[in-house]
Design brief:
heterodimer; A: 158 residues; mainly alpha; 54% helix; globular; B: mainly alpha; Four Helix Bundle (Hemerythrin (Met), subunit A); two-stranded antiparallel sheet; 2 strands; 5% strand
Chain lengths: 158, 177
Amino acid sequence: MSSVSTPFITPDGLLTHWQGHRRVTRRVIDAFPDDKLFTFSVGGMRTFGELSLEMLTMGVPMVQGAINGDWATSMNRDPHPKQEILRMWDESTATLNTLFPQIPADRFLTSMTAFGQYTAPLHDLILYVIDNEIHHRGQGYVYLRALGIEPPPFYDRS
Amino acid sequence: MSGMTPEQAVWMRDFYLRPLKLESDTTFKVMSAVPDSAGDYKPDTNSRTALDLLRHIAAADNRFIETVINGEFSTQSIIPDAVQSPADVAAWYEARHAANREALAKVPGPALIKPVDFRGMFTWPAVQFLQLGLHHTIHHRGQLSAYLRAMGAKVPSIYGESWDATQARLAAQGATT
């Protein structure tokens, strides 16, 4: 293993990468009809509205916890109107942009226990949040197809 | 990420070897959860069949690693036509992925930063295709996982314990008390 002092991505680059994925996910949320976001799924899986709330309650709280050790988050998955989910999403986007630069550079290599149960270096925890979002967004693509809706291209993160 | 040094590329390659193994283990579990009788399942007429999705994941996940090993992105088919059942695809995927990870670990730094064209859309240092491949697989594996219950199969644990895994664990605990 090479020295860990040779980073291949800057914190700013990681945030840009994450926000690119979040833009795609926002488009997926927006593609759902309002009355399907919290009612429709395939095979009894969770709705995309519930999955969106999971993403929202992992993103900012992960960064907040990394900064000040406050790992509080919400487990509420009650239905919300689509526009309210989108508003929360946009609010999270702005909050991430504000909080992320506050993470001390050396903390990305520091092992910590997120939400009292996930122990790993911070960079792994953040990558986990991104991977989890991509995974559940893939489910959303299946739901949209099943609703007869063309999903947005997942490679376009603009 | 332009201007990557060979040293940074080696660090990046070494960093990704662990998630490549962990994620491929998970991908194999999801593939193996598809019953051989359900290869034709698709949730909508416009969706891929489960078998098409399996073959796409198996081929693409290996193709992205081979892009780094070979220093070029090839569009040649790599999964044999004869590999057609979900179980056979999963077995082919697992064996090829293990061999590719072994080869990947030996690619020297200068080769890892070789510029590689992706279908004329962009050019990246070869090693950067590891991240693209991981995310591509996670996306499509998420799709495949959404097929499972609807086809009568169980969803294995992917990121945290799945509902089906929880039920199996509780049932096993109940059987022993």
